[in-house]
Amino acid sequence: GASILLMNTDGILVMTSPGISEALLGQVMQEDLFRAVLEGNIVTMESKISGAFEVPMLVVGYPIMQGQMAGIFMCRPMPEIEKSLQDMYSAGALCLVLVLLLGILASYLTSRRMTAPLLEMNQAAKIIANGNFDQRVRIKSQDEMGQLAESFNHMAESLENYEKTRRDFIANVSHDLRSPLTSIQGFLTAVIDGTVPPEKQNHYLNIALEETYRLSKIAEGIVDMSRAQDSKVTLQWEEFDINEVIRANISAMEPQLNQKNIVVKAFYESQKTIVRADRDKIMRVVHNLLENAVKFSPENSEIQVETTLSERRKVLVSVKDQGCGISKQDQRYIFDRFYKADTTRNADKVGSGLGLSIVREFIYAHGEQIAVKSEEGKGAEFIFSLQLAD
Predict the structure, then answer these.
(1) pLDDT (0 to 100) of residue 224
(2) Rounded to 5 degrees, what angle do the CA atoms 383, 316, 288 make?
(3) Would you give the distance in Å from CA 148 to the centre of its chain?
(4) Which of 109, 125, 143, 321 could pair covalently with 293 via S-S, beta carbons 3.0-4.6 A apart?
(5) The predicted structure's pLDDT at residue 356
(6) 97, HSE (Cβ side, Cα atoms, 13 Å)
(7) Sign of CA dihedral 255, 259, 261, 263
């Protein structure tokens, strides 16, 4: 849409584009424009160019220096340029408004998408806080919010299982406490009332004494678990032969083993394997694992105890039975306090669900690890690590 003027080396206009008066031909170009272009400069200025245009023009002069030609001038009316700029500004403002509206809409939808799961989790948390642990949050995505919802559901599931095991523990402990207390009360009453003949009094008093030992064992387990959970386990570090600890526990379990005709096979890494740990605590760990293995092993079966040396200079102790095994679901909670997998390991009729929890806490107190490997119907294997003595 620009008008074109051609100028020769004398500054005279020699050609114009259509629509411009031919009276301009032969006239001398405006002095300041002519000199600047003749010097080889590109010139841009606002000018009327007298005799050619009635309105201010934006003039751009460009030197060409071809033969007699010195420069070319392109002219565009300033009102037209201003109108074009105004139209561009209006279009830009409209685009900005549209982008702003779209941004607000996108922000609103994004915030709703982010806050909706949080509000749902907040509501679910209030419900769980009131004791309804079966509440869950719907997982709608796999992003960070979906992972948070999954973690929330896992927490709720853990709380639900913890509450269930707590109730089961209270029921089990109540039963375990009531049974010996009832026996003790009955036997002592019979002895005091003279119902029991003098020659049988010692027999019934010994039974009452055994029941008190049972009560002490339950109380000791609860106290140990409480101390372990409060990180108050005190370790007496010493160096000892783990093989001797295993042999001592196997010997102590001989009556239970003979009762079910169970054979224990022990495989040792070496004749002596000296570890650095708290001997009494590790004695308790091995005893609990062997006791569980005997409890859940069928008659005429076999238990294997093995020590191996890992590449990281750790002694690995394994206790493996041929019992009914532990399901994948129960393996997630088998070390939790109060937990008893009664559905799959229902041989445990009198346990309080603290044995494996105490084992784990004692091993953790040493800075070591314990794990379980099991398949339903194929037995269970418990493996824990100990520090090899220098």
Answers:
(1) 66
(2) 45
(3) 8
(4) 321
(5) 85
(6) 6
(7) negative
Query: Could you tell me if 160 and 133 are in contact, meaning their C-beta atoms sit under 8 angstroms apart?
Result: yes
First to last CA, the chain: 94
Q: Helix H segments across the chain?
A: 31-38, 78-129, 144-193, 198-229, 242-252, 254-260, 279-295, 328-331, 355-365
Cβ density class 349-384: b for 16+ within 10 Å, e for less: eebbbbbbbbbbbbbebbebebeeebeeeebbbbbb
Task: Quote the radius of gyration of the chain (alpha carbons, Å).
Answer: 47
Structure tokens at 142: 């796999």
Task: Give which of 386, 147, 42, 79 is closest to 246, Cα–Cα.
Answer: 386
**Cα of 146 vs its chain's centroid, Å:** 12
Rounded distance between C-alpha atoms, residue 283 and residue 265, angstroms: 18
Tokens of 278: 């708290």
Candidates 222, 198, 206, 157; CA nearest to 353 is 222
pLDDT surpassing 70 at residue 51: no
* DSSP symbols for 213-262: HHHHHHHHHHHHHHHHHTT-PPP-EEEEEHHHHHHHHHHHTHHHHHHHT-
Location of structure tokens 């913890």: 162
Side-chain-side CA neighbours of 328 within 13 Å: the count stands at 0
Provide the pLDDT confidence category of residue 345 given band limits of 50, 70 and 90. Answer: very low
pLDDT digits (tens, 9 = 90+) for 8-34: 888 888 888 887 777 778 888 777 788
Helix (H, G, I), strand (E, B) or coil at 196: coil
pTM for the whole structure: 0.49
- Write 78-82 long-range contacts (CB < 8 A, 24+): 78/46, 79/55, 80/1
DSSP code string of 100-152: HHHHHHHHHHHHHHHHHHHHHHHHHHHHHHTT-TT-------SSHHHHHHHHH
Rounded to the nearest 5°, which phi and psi values hold at 127? -65, -45
C-alpha neighbours within 13 Å on the C-beta side of residue 75: 23
- Length of the chain in terms of residues written: 390
The β-bridge partners of 239 are 276
